[in-house]
Amino acid sequence: xxxxxxxxxxxxxxxxxxxxxxxxxxxxxxxxxxxxxxxxxxxxxxxxxxxxxxxxxxxxxxxxxxxxxxxxxxxxxxxxxxxxx
Length: 85
Prior knowledge:
Oligomer: single chain
Helix content: over 70%
């Protein structure tokens, strides 16, 4: 066996575990990046939902106040109609 073949074989045998650990580290880093992006997107979605919910609550409150006003007006109209009869 020549010296070159020996060193090539030694490099392959010691390089394979290093490559495996390197790829494993790279995959873990990528998974952490994806998880961070997912959490950021979820936080933005939750923030948008809270904003929309508060807007909907304000709109609902306005609608309810208008409904109370309409009920009052309808009661007055009914009284007037009963007096006319």
